[in-house]
Amino acid sequence: MLKKEHNDLLTQTGPETPFGRMFRCYWMPALLAEELPENDCPPVRVKLLSERLIAFRDSEGRYGLMDEFCAHRGISLWFGRNEECGLRCPYHGWKYDVAGQCVDMPNEPEHSAFAKKVKLKSYPLVERGGVLWTYMGPAEQQPPLPEYEFATVPAAQTYTSKRFQECNWLQAMEGGIDSSHVSFLHRGDINTDPLFKGARGNQYNLGDLRPVFEVVESAGGLFIGARRNAENGYYYWRITQWVMPSYTIIPPRGTHSVHGHFWIPIDDENCWAWSFDYHPTRALTEAELTAMRAGKGIHAKVDSQYRPLANKDNDYLMDRAAQKAGKTYSGIEGFAMQDASLQESMGPIIDRTKETLVSTDSGIIMARQKLLHAIRAFTEQGVVPPGVSLEHQRVRSAAVVLPPDQPFKDAAREALIAHPGVAPASV
Amino acid sequence: MQSESARMSSAAEARFRIQSPPPTNRAVKVIDLDVASDADVMRLMNEIPHADLVMMVVSAGGNTEAVSAIGTVCSDLRVMTHTVVIRDDSASEAATSQTLGEVRPWSLMVVVVNRRDYVDDILRSFR
């Protein structure tokens, strides 16, 4: 369980909240690059960390992310005209550049300097790895661009999707570090999903439903090792990495791509679940990309607003017959919605004062505590939180078979670092 | 009309959840192996039959002599074992690895932390 004040602290990320200020220390995925596909394309509404923003791509390909509403009369700039290097409010013609600077004010005298004094709050928006990243903190503390491996490999080697999730970011993210649910909730899919099936490690997963866990602090967050029995007394280790505040990398399976998530608060009751697949040493195949686009693996089928087609309004397309037949464990299809359906069922913000945690929840417990410690250090002493450093971001997950006397963190030390061009450790 | 899932996962419906958490009366026994005496270990051994969870705390490179005895009793009685290894700044990698090797066979959950105050945080989480 968690005290109410700590639950509030971890689940509130608006601009004036302690965690909101700390979350703004990081570069975050804001949009898929495909959402702003060409110069002067329609602007896109964005809500992040409880701030309503508008994103656009100007006539010269520059990206802008700024306050959604015109400084003049508060009109949403979603209705704006994206033209000639700026976004123009259709009400009275005020025009803003990608930095939020008002550059034209046609209802003022022709040579008035007043426009120069009007600037909307804006944030940098930068493309990297098919994702548009933003940094919403103080400009003078802006860190270098992110170097998560999925965003730095060549474009042909990576694929990213996003889906709207209707609950607080933390209960969604906690699913990403809760390795013990995989053998239950996802057991029907491990051997059938095209992006998972065929790996030797799957048999260890399904053959040992009582994994033993080791949670180890890392510089940027946590290593979460799940140990299952392999042959001849050896152990099969799946090592998930969590990098603060909300980056999780799932251990790979066989020769499949590596995948993971980012969990980004939209507001306190909704979040974006970002899902990526990449391979450090090869291009993704057409078959893999087709499967990912079709919502296989950790991705989901979504509508034009990135809301999953299976959602709470249609009871997630619950299929009791498939549940009964064991085709799916919960009756919901696909890894992503199996997780999201249960996490949304907790309510918009789960009351963690009423939980009954057990030892296998130690990854979740430690993640919360590390976040609380970081918030305290950041708030009271200005300490830059873990995960901002590029070194903390250049990490990987791993799946390995080890002799019983070898600690995973030592034996897999190099496998847990992202070395460009080196294949992932996978079973 | 809203689906049942949409209706029941709303903030409005959360008000109708039963407010008192389920009583667990979980019995958690904790032993700090860095400072435990033989008498402390014996006392713990006698308490294990009534425990739901035994937490052993030890510093990297610390005294793990009692781990196997405690672990054996817990294993026989099907009591969960949870070990917290404290790896402070002075602990070497070798010491941490050695301690992990010694506690791992007797621990169903191992957590390696850099600060001792995490032990209290973990215990509070178990309520």
Question: How does this model look, in words?
Answer:
The complex is a heterodimer of chains A (427) and B (127). Chain A is built from 13 helices and 19 strands. By secondary structure, chain A is an alpha+beta fold. The model of chain A has no long low-confidence stretch (mean pLDDT 95). Chain B has helices at 4-8, 11-14, 38-47, 67-77, 93-103, 118-126; strands spanning 28-32, 53-59, 80-86, 109-113. Strand 13 (212-217) of chain A pairs parallel with strand 4 (109-113) of chain B.
List key phrases describing it.
heterodimer; A: 427 residues; alpha+beta; eight-stranded antiparallel beta sheet; four-stranded antiparallel beta sheet; 13 helices; 22% helix; B: 127 residues; alpha/beta; four-stranded parallel beta sheet; 4 strands; 19% strand; elongated
Q: How does the SSE layout of this entry go?
A:
The complex is a heterodimer of chains A (427) and B (127).
Chain A: H1 4-11, H2 18-23, E1 27-32, E2 44-48, E3 51-57, E4 63-67, E5 81-82, E6 87-88, E7 95-96, E8 102-104, E9 122-123, E10 125-128, E11 131-135, H3 149-152, E12 158-165, H4 169-176, H5 182-185, H6 187-190, H7 200-207, E13 212-217, E14 221-229, E15 235-243, E16 247-250, E17 258-267, E18 270-278, H8 286-293, H9 320-325, H10 335-345, H11 362-381, H12 390-393, E19 398-402, H13 408-411
Antiparallel strand pairs in A: 1-11, 2-3, 3-4, 4-9, 5-6, 6-7, 7-8, 10-11, 12-18, 13-14, 14-15, 15-16, 15-19, 16-17, 17-18
Chain B: H1 4-8, H2 11-14, E1 28-32, H3 38-47, E2 53-59, H4 67-77, E3 80-86, H5 93-103, E4 109-113, H6 118-126
